[in-house]
Design brief:
The structure holds two protein chains of two kinds. By secondary structure, chain A is α+β, with helices and mostly antiparallel strands. Among the domains of chain A are: about 100 residues, no CATH class; about 120 residues, Immunoglobulin-like (Sandwich), CATH 2.60.40; about 130 residues, no CATH class. Chain A is about 40% helix and about 25% strand. Chain A has 13 helices and 18 strands. In chain A, helix 1 packs across helix 5, helix 4 crosses helix 6 and helix 8 packs antiparallel against helix 10. The longest helix of chain A has about 30 residues. Chain A starts with a helix and ends in a 17-residue tail after the last strand. Chain B is α/β, with parallel strands linked by helices. Chain B contains ten helices and 14 strands. The two termini of chain B are about 45 Å apart. The N terminus of chain B is likely disordered. Classes of the chains: A alpha+beta, B alpha/beta.
Amino acid sequence: MKQALHIFAKDARHFWPEITVSLVITAVFAWTYRYTWMADMVPGIPKLQYLQKLAEIVAGLVPVSWWILITRAVHAESLVGDRQWWITKPYEWPQLLGSKLLFLAAFVLLPFCVAQCVLLEVAGFHWFEYMPGLGFSLVLVLGILVGPLLALAAVTSGFGKMTLTLLGGLVAVVLVAVLGGQMDTGGIASYGDDAGGAASFLLVLVCCGAAIVVQYSRRVSWMSRLLLASVFVPLAAAILLGSSTKLIAMAYPLTSGSVRVVFDPQGGHSPATDAGSGRVGVSVPLLMSGVVDGTAVQVNGVRATFESQDGKTWTSPWLPVYGRLHLPGSSKGGLPLQLDRKFFDQARSKPVNVYVKLAITTLKAGVDRRIVLTGQEFAVRGVGICSWNPTAQTMFDTTEITCLSAMGEPDFTFVSVQRNESSCTDGDAKDEVRSTGSVGGTIGELSPAPAEFGITSVWSRSVWLNDFGTDVERGGRILHPPPLLCPRTPIHFTHYTLMNRSEVDVTLPQFQLPDLEAQVKGIVVPRL
Amino acid sequence: MNTMSAERTAGTENRSADSGAVIQTEGLSKRFGKTEALSGVGLEVPAGAIYALVGANGAGKTTLIKLLMNILRPSEGRATVLGIDAQRLRGKGLGRIGYVSENQEFPEWMTVAGMLEYLRPFYPTWDRGLEAQLMRQFDLPVGRKLKHLSRGQRMKAAMASALAFRPALLVLDEPFAGLDPLVRDELMEGLLDRAPETTIFLSSHDLAEIESFSSHVGFLQQGRLLFSEEMGVLSERFRDVTVVLEGSGPGSAVLRGNLPPSWLQFEATESMVRFVHSECRGEETRAELGAMLPGARSIEMEPMPLRSIFLAIAKEKRGRDVAGEGSGR
């Protein structure tokens, strides 16, 4: 330990300019990052937007300063080459490695942790209540950012080579991701089990750790580089295997549940759009029913097989659907499908049969917290500190609730306002149309980790409560629904947990493909 | 490591300790791809020796030193340094070895004093008094950064840092290359002051430089160790022999096709024979020569400078190689 402290003291003396710059950047980040969520909470203020941009730039500089600091510290006793002064001196490798870890702990992880605590306090959270999350966040930053940077620095001899290797690594990750995107899957894999991601993280951590230990203990660079390169195996496996259709089928088994989805002949007709990559986007109106009381359903993904009159078929990959939550009772909306442009051109003259597979998640309703608006900010257990900006509702005709959550995504929550509970109808109601039911949206994740990977400890998430399409023309006048939120309006925060995932099949016989519009602007199609 | 190899290594280390050798190598080889930089080198450096490893540039001197210091790993063979398998030489094991090389990358940002201060805690045997003495002796600017030192000053600083902890072994890779005579003398003086307590192993391609103070010498040529022995024995063994023959005698013709292998660079005329004797044993050899050359009028056996000995060996080896290649064709 004495030797580790001695080397650490030398590095701290030598790299004081880099350390100072990094600490200043971290301090500025901790001070300015509040403006990113303040600009979300109070939109439309130019000064806040300017500060938000500044805060985002500073936040981007934090990992860059770490990268420089880590590289400089490790390369002070470079492990690659045979001309280094230190390798003929009585350095004990565990002490040397210990000194570098101490350096990271003192000048990267500790300032990062302090910045996270400051941000929590600034946002209105008490940092000591989030100790497990802070610890988990440290582990994530160590495993995803600091560990790989340390390993890369350990197997390279200079800053230039390290930079090139890093760029090469990033290109490889992007290539694998692009390859994954080309597979039969789209982005639906992200709805699958998180176990794959956790296993990949652990494997990356193990590969980086092994590369570091081998390099420090033996300085066998080719072996350490091989170990580090093997990081791409779990990464590629997670991206490619995680996208496999078979895994999606396993995650969403075909069951005979109560949910029924049928074609909605009254659902209107949207033109087809150019979806890019040689595909055409088509919205199919569907009607969903059979959602049991105390539950809700969310559509996560869709896969469609189109069969033309001459018997030709084309099957789309699994595509993600970022749809709304379907509550008990029937609900309808457009389901976005994609099909090959050539197939579309050949088949659209006659009706086609469409066989749709929907990946759906059934959720169980939990605690429903009814918060009566008294001020602009209010705390919601399981979500965080939320706010409502009445100015934005007036200025932009949109009702947005922004919630700050500590250490990552909040619990999966349906935020809604019951029209019959709204207190905003007291005023002049001449231009208003009475509306019933509820308006809501979701925030959060079904199984949030103790912390998300990121340099901030405060996450800002917004939910928009808009009931588009409820305007009514009456007597030559457009009648709007009254504003949703006013002081004393109750907002419901309903917590949902995962019940099951399943596949629902829908057949659309003799579906007439719509005409293609070259450009469609400003059309808002409610999604299923 | 399996049991047999562990026993083998332990055996080597014990033999090394028993023989009193500070450095011992057996069949040490190093290949870089298809290039064989070192081939089957076996040598012993006894305690207290000043061993000079000589050879032309590219002969493999630096490679051998890097293998001894565990900077490189051998392709074959093994080496022990201070009784430790060279491949395990790290950490505390290096605390008894000083190493100075012309090719080292120094921490340029450190001052001379800062470097010594930094190194002190690494060596339990660091002698502050000796450090101060060396600083005076080498006349080093303590407050100046290494990057601002001249080449000679940098080597002096490196030497001071390698001597101040009274190492059991000092390994020097071309320590005097490119230095002016004054600096060279100062460094040599500093070295020789430590010689009684420290075994010195140095490489050089300057034969005149090492002849004056080396006790042992090894000669590397194209990765092969041609010989390794005490300087005194080497000097005694090699003699520049000139035999003047009687005009009426049988002359050198009697030797044609029957030259002993220990005779190098043989030249003969009707009246004179000249060669380098590589196995000379004084008067015994003189008597043998007299018997072999009955017409000898005088036999002179002159000692040779190290440079001439190496030239003779090198030329002889080259001649044999050329002959070998010729016969091979």
